[in-house]
């Protein structure tokens, strides 16, 4: 059993683009089950094993029956598999595996060593010294990595990341033989299993574990707070064939990496687990137990339950479009988000579970979290919604971190937190507190909680689960808005004004900052709506109405939205914080002709400043263009993103790994395919002309509808909507000419025309409507569309 441990050492991989990135559950909180249980059930209501046709009772036509009966999900997922015929040299080139907690990135050992690195990281492993702030004292801690060290010199690799199975397979060829491998991070067990079958010349290959120094990765980028040091080195122990690297923490507790190798019929399988505990030192016992139970199973016995979860996961929705590169990218993002997120796991930090050298070893709340989770709604994956759960579970921390005078009735979330939503002390460079409007320091970035609650509101709107509204949105948004209300003052113009606050990440404070005015207006309107829905007579309702009536208009100039009063948008700025009313709040929209010039001017002025633009600039611009109905522009912006920023394995980097941008690009695709803001479901609102064929199935919309639709020959052929909540159904169907509406049994349904190409259908919970051209009886089978032209696979293919 050639598994050894090297002495602890710091990771040494250099960062390719150094730079700055200016970004205890209390009894009063509802339990995790109360907050997310019903919403998750709504996500599962459609059934994990999706149908092969758009609705179960539709008979196939003879033409459809004659087609090959390949499973559409298997087809698109196999097509999207990433491949490597060249050795990946770094984390943004290599395969990655994960289960939202345990994560591994696989690539060549840096420095020219003849080895392959399997990184071992865990989203729950963090420090517990709040006096040094979230970025040092509460930072995520690196754990270490294994190296697979062959006998001979590596000459070639041939790997495939099989998305459908969430499994890496392939070979490593050396001048002494071959190593055939399979690897997974098990979906429900906290274990990574790597099976290697060596040829005779490689029988003596070995595994070596390298513990990392348990210190905040930020020390390589920023000045260290006074008194801050790393934790003691890990100690490697042997427990009857199971080895354990025990990492003690200065604040108490430990994290433990345990591993064991088993050989069966010439196949050597390495089993790895990580456990974390604080303040008690119980992680070792848990890790040893987990390895004992997992290693008792051969790889072929461990894998089936893992694969079954992933197979069912993908079948909850379907999207196929003729751009092969983008379609593959989309399905890889669905793999990535499920490898990084679950409702009961920590809210994704900037790099998900794949911690690498980074100046941002925490969770970022002024854009990153919001963008990370948008795609879960349309793709019908509410089981991944950690934001709703975490905000509900740790709500008391959101008030306790404000200055004392505001804790009783207000709440806010710091820019940076640990997994418990704690920022920690005010150590220099240690983190970013909420701040107080009109004061600096700390930077008064006060809108982040309101924006995060917009994500939770989206979960409510896509499920119509009133428990989300009652238990999380209304009580927390009430406190977030109350914080603003402490500082609103009337001006000589009779309007209500805010003192100086901070618009992420422009760099200067501004009174009447658009970021905050837009969020405040959305917050007050949403509180009034939620109170009405919940039947709550809230004593603050008159104040919210007053704010909506008297709040000062958004500051604008000849270039569109400003940062705030007296502060024009005058330099390159990657963030669209000054334009949130356009997207994602949809409070200033293209459907209002009076706002179109403002939207277009603002968008063009924003993206016209080169210099500081980053990847998510282009996903935001794509989604705004989609709202404008400009599919060609949306596709252009996504093309710029792919060309300039997306890495070979679809990861994204600035000064370190940041996961939000590729995930938000998937949401931009959603916005091109379907939009459901403002009570109207818009079918294919912004498709480029080249996408003359498209299939979408069980796409989740606001109002808790599951949408299926097909575009054929450049025209919408049919639309199907299934209601899960009996909410009002208004649909802009995009079909040409006269239409008819039928139920799942083919019976005509009445409908009301409420606008050009827009109808209202009365659907009760569980009922369906199928919209077609009059007299048309299309085939409703779910199937992939053909690619318009060949495209290279993601990964590192041979050419």
UniProtKB/TrEMBL annotation:
InterPro entries: 6-hairpin_glycosidase_sf, 6hp_glycosidase-like_sf, AFCA-like_C, GH95_cat, TAT_signal. It comes from the Bacteria. Residues 337-652 form the Glycosyl hydrolase family 95 catalytic domain. Residues 1-27 are annotated as: Disordered. Pfam families: Glyco_hydro_95_C, Glyco_hydro_95_cat. Residues 675-768 form the Alpha fucosidase A-like C-terminal domain. This is Tat pathway signal sequence domain protein. It comes from Streptomyces javensis. The lineage of its organism: Bacteria, Bacillati, Actinomycetota, Actinomycetes, Kitasatosporales.
